[in-house]
Amino acid sequence: MPDTRKRSSIWLQFKDFFFVLVLSLSQFRLHGSTGLRSGSQANFFPPLEDAMLPSGSFNNRMALITGGGTGLGRAMTATLSQLGAQCIIASRKLDVLQRTAEEISSQTGNKVHAVQCDVRDPQAVSQCVDQIEALTGLPDVIINNAAGNFVCPSERLSPNAWKTITDIVLNGTAFVTLELGKRLIQNQKGASFLAITTIYAESGSGFVVPSASAKAGVEALYKSLAAEWGRYGHRFNIIQPGPIRTKGAFSRLDPTGAFEKAMIDRIPTGRLGTPAEIANLAAYVSSNYASWMSGAVIRFDGGEYVSLAGEFNELRSVTPDQWKLLEAMIRKTKGS
Ligand SMILES: CCCCC/C=C\C/C=C\C/C=C\C=C\C(=O)SCCNC(=O)CCNC(=O)[C@H](O)C(C)(C)COP(=O)(O)OP(=O)(O)OC[C@H]1O[C@@H](n2cnc3c(N)ncnc32)[C@H](O)[C@@H]1OP(=O)(O)O
Ligand SMILES: NC(=O)C1=CN([C@@H]2O[C@H](COP(=O)(O)OP(=O)(O)OC[C@H]3O[C@@H](n4cnc5c(N)ncnc54)[C@H](OP(=O)(O)O)[C@@H]3O)[C@@H](O)[C@H]2O)C=CC1
């Protein structure tokens, strides 16, 4: 490599390192000033990892989980399979799906099928549903979990970046839901539909604008269909997860790891969620124990949303001694 290129490549690596260092130090400063050591309250909220519903709750039921090969979708598949469901997992990477399917089947003894499908392509979705009908018949449970996302200042987004995320999240969910919905209606078969969105679907969020817009669209889609398709025996619900460590999410939303501590600090339960916890909730919502639940939007975030929203929540960092002073000052005030 010529000297000038070698030098500029070393400089680039140094700049990356420096950037991460500055981010880490700014986090250290941020947390050094808080009164209560962050995260200690997590001891009050230990995550339970076992399947919550009675065994056999999903016997003779078929469940489709999009994006079921990895992360949260994989955990939901494992729980449903453990509870007796025959699962179908669908996404783009067939090798990943097949590996997951084999691992879960061998643990639970219940068949997991892997079907390749890019949810952005309505024709591929239709062929995927043909394949599902041939394998298991139409599903009783549909979990729209597949998604794409990355952090990016909006002024840096290309039209194709916008289209890619909104196609996967909003159009993909719509294509899967409409294709299955129409066939279920034709066959007079009821079903539970669940969409996995996110807490910022409600608030919006900078730096993930295509995802926020598309997830908000998914919520409108599911609430609308809950009203319209109850007459066909279909329920529609939404889970908004807070942060749960998965490679897919964390590598694209916090690539340096610099924001994780700040994130945990603002969660009142003092920790991230776990895949098994959301899998239990998804199983409950999709089960007959929740047959009266439709149109629900369930926030599952350890309290992060309200923590971010409340104007005075930063006062958590005021120490008892500081409170004594503050209270004295406030009590001294007379009149307006
Ligand atoms: C305050 C700090 C907070 C820290 C947060 C930490 C943790 C998380 C907490 C909460 C999470 C909340 C919500 C999470 C929501 C999620 O959805 S997470 C799930 C994430 N999983 C995935 O994204 C998996 C699938 N993703 C992918 O396959 C790819 O990432 C992609 C979505 C890009 C799709 O792949 P592909 O179809 O191959 O697309 P391309 O690579 O061809 O790209 C298409 C266009 O997009 C542009 N692009 C790609 N990456 C970026 C980027 N990083 N920045 C800007 N633009 C990007 C690419 O250039 C293409 O556009 P052009 O053709 O070049 O114009
Ligand atoms: N982890 C977290 O903290 C949070 C996650 N969520 C949501 O949870 C869900 C799961 O995310 P998580 O498990 O973390 O991340 P993952 O990246 O592990 O999961 C995303 C899945 O979507 C699939 N997928 C992506 N694009 C397509 C496509 N075009 N067609 C079909 N499948 C596709 C991927 O499979 P493949 O690459 O094979 O196509 C992958 O299995 C998502 O809806 C996400 O928005 C919400 C809030 C917080």
Automatic annotation (TrEMBL):
Record-linked PANTHER family: 2,4-DIENOYL-COA REDUCTASE [(3E)-ENOYL-COA-PRODUCING], MITOCHONDRIAL, SHORT-CHAIN DEHYDROGENASE/REDUCTASE
Keyword Cell membrane: no
Record key words, sorted: NADP, Oxidoreductase
EC number: 1.3.1.124
Organism listed in the record: Astatotilapia calliptera
InterPro entries documented for this protein: NAD(P)-bd_dom_sf, SDR_fam
Swiss-Prot/TrEMBL catalytic activity: (2E,4E)-hexadienoyl-CoA + NADPH + H(+) = (3E)-hexenoyl-CoA + NADP(+); a (2E,4E)-dienoyl-CoA + NADPH + H(+) = a 4,5-saturated-(3E)-enoyl-CoA + NADP(+); a (2E,4Z)-dienoyl-CoA + NADPH + H(+) = a 4,5-saturated-(3E)-enoyl-CoA + NADP(+)
GO cellular component, one term: mitochondrion
Pfam family, one: adh_short_C2
GO molecular function terms noted in the UniProt entry: 2,4-dienoyl-CoA reductase (NADPH) activity
Record-given protein name: 2,4-dienoyl-CoA reductase [(3E)-enoyl-CoA-producing], mitochondrial
